[in-house]
Amino acid sequence: MGLLDSRRLRELKSRVSKPSAFDSFVRAEFGVRPLQHAWYEEAMTHASLSPYLEDHQNANERLEFLGDAVLGAMVAKQVFDSFPEDEEGPLTQRKAQMVSRKALNQIGQSMGLESFIRAKMGNREIPATVVGNALEALIGAIFIDHGYRKTEQGVLRMFERHPLNSGALMESDFKTQMQEWAHQSSKSLEYRLIGEAMVEGRNVYQMELVLDGHIMGKGHGFSKKGAEQAAAEDASQNIPL
């Protein structure tokens, strides 16, 4: 093999082994190396590009759904372990603050995720909500690519690298979000106690959230406030907060 061929071979190997900016980003932020790149491309593809995608390509809504569920489970375990004295209500509120839309928007923007999102927004900047949604989709992609344990480690790394502004998130629990949404939408909101039972020596309350006379969510907890929080979280699944 001649000198020129050897040099060209080294250049080609260098190109193949050199990680992309996005690969380096994921590795820095989550501590993992992307392997199945198609999932990450999908995670970074906003629905505004749907009309332009090939048949085998998808926007990131499905990965966002998966990432939301995975993140919720991991954060629930984290607050459960970190606050052993808390009952259901405070645990629910802590979890809600960490996975709220405000929190995910804040983290996504802090890490500069918007620079990797593919979207058709015209001359507008990518909205914070799109960044937060893409972050959930990215977590979904990492979960598919690396499994639960490595994703959990990556999520904990993410929260360590981008500590939340607790002041900005103080009022981001589900009850507050529902109250704000109902006020802005000129709708009446109330919580009704529909059941109370004794389970293993503790009172368990069941609440329903009623919006303009319609039952929108139900939840239970060891306190009335905890049950209201759970009912608000249930209702939030059907209402675009």
Short structural description:
The chain is an alpha+beta fold and 241 residues long. It has helices spanning 3-17, 21-30, 37-43, 61-82, 88-98, 101-110, 128-161, 166-169, 174-184, 224-236, and strands spanning 189-199, 202-211, 214-221.
The helix-strand sequence is HHHHHHHHHEEEH
Reported for the largest beta sheet, the result is:
3 strands, antiparallel
| Class from helix and strand fractions | alpha+beta
Query: So, CATH architecture of the largest domain?
Result: Orthogonal Bundle
User: How much helical structure, as a percent, in the residues?
Assistant: 55-70%
Low-confidence stretches: 11-17, 167-172
**Rg calculated over all Cα atoms:** 22 Å
For CATH, the homologous superfamily of the largest domain is named as Ribonuclease III domain
Instruction: Supply the CATH class of the largest domain.
Output: Mainly Alpha
Roughly what fraction of the amino acids lie in strands?
5-15%
Basic shape: globular
Going across the major beta sheet, what is the strand order?
Answer: 1-2-3
* Overall domain count: 2
How would you state the average pLDDT, rounded? Answer: 85
Number of strands: 3
CATH topology of the largest domain: Ribonuclease iii, N-terminal Endonuclease Domain, Chain A
> How many DSSP helices?
10
**N- to C-terminal distance:** 65 Å
